[in-house]
């Protein structure tokens, strides 16, 4: 424990306290000797990083339990690797930086359930760089992460329905398992329809909004 504390740059009593709180896992024991490894050191550095970002020890313990109950990256990728998306590896501290103040056990559980996040040892893997960046941008614009994730679940339902529609339509008239024109045609249709839907919605909002009074 003394060597682990020295590597982490913290007092031995702090390591012992974290161990008693369940923030780090028990060491491997051989007789009366306790062995700590790189996993324990990484966890201590994560705790320090999250404390610097304003998280409490209770909050960190809740986050750790949420991650440990989630699926690991092998299980998520076992469902099929993304064809066009780039996974992103993150430390817990880096994830907290992306969504400052919004990384809660509830939001983590929602992201894990959606399959956006998975665990790989001491790292977190976000399955799509594009979705990670868009989600972070929405949060920076003032949209709560819980709202973003709730919307993502609804988008997922509609996207699955659209995928079924396009695959069924093209496969019915093609001998290929995945016609090469499937993805570009589907994206073009969805992009155009979404653009026109946004036009309609924004025109409706502008029409329904009462006019501003004269400036004083």
TrEMBL record:
Pinpoint the HTH merR-type domain residues: 1-66
Query: Which residue stretches, if any, does this entry annotate as coiled coil?
Result: none
On whether rRNA-binding is a keyword of this UniProt record, the answer is no
GO MF annotation, one:
DNA-binding transcription factor activity
* Pfam families, per the entry: MerR_1
SMART domains linked: HTH_MERR (SM00422)
Look up the domain of life of the source: Bacteria
> Has the keyword Iron been applied to this entry?
no
Keywords assigned: DNA-binding
Instruction: Name the residues that span the membrane.
Output: none
Q: Which PANTHER family match?
A: HTH MERR-TYPE DOMAIN-CONTAINING PROTEIN, REDOX-CYCLING DRUG-SENSING TRANSCRIPTIONAL ACTIVATOR SOXR
Task: Please state what the protein is called.
Answer: MerR family transcriptional regulator
Organism whose genome encodes this protein: Streptomyces atratus
- Lineage of the organism: Bacteria, Bacillati, Actinomycetota, Actinomycetes, Kitasatosporales
């Amino acid at each position: 424990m003394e060597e682990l504390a020295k590597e982490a740059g913290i007092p031995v009593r702090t390591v012992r306290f974290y161990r008693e709180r369940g923030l780090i896992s028990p060491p491997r024991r051989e007789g009366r000797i306790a062995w700590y490894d790189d996993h324990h050191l990484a966890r201590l550095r994560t705790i320090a990083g999250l404390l610097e970002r304003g998280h409490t020890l209770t909050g960190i313990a809740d986050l750790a339990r949420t991650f440990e109950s989630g699926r690991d990256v092998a299980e998520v990728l076992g469902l099929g690797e993304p064809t066009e998306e780039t996974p992103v590896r993150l430390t817990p501290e880096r994830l907290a930086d992306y969504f400052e103040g919004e990384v809660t056990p509830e939001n983590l559980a929602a992201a894990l359930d959606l399959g956006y996040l998975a665990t790989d040892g001491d790292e977190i893997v976000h399955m799509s760089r594009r979705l990670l960046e868009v989600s972070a941008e929405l949060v920076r614009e003032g949209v709560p992460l819980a709202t973003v994730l709730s919307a993502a679940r609804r988008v997922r339902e509609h996207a699955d329905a659209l995928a079924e529609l396009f695959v069924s339509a093209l496969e019915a008239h093609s001998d290929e398992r995945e016609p090469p024109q499937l993805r570009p045609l589907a994206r073009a249709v969805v992009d155009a329809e979404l653009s026109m839907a946004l036009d309609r919605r924004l025109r409706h909002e502008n029409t329904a909004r009462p006019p501003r009074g004269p400036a004083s």
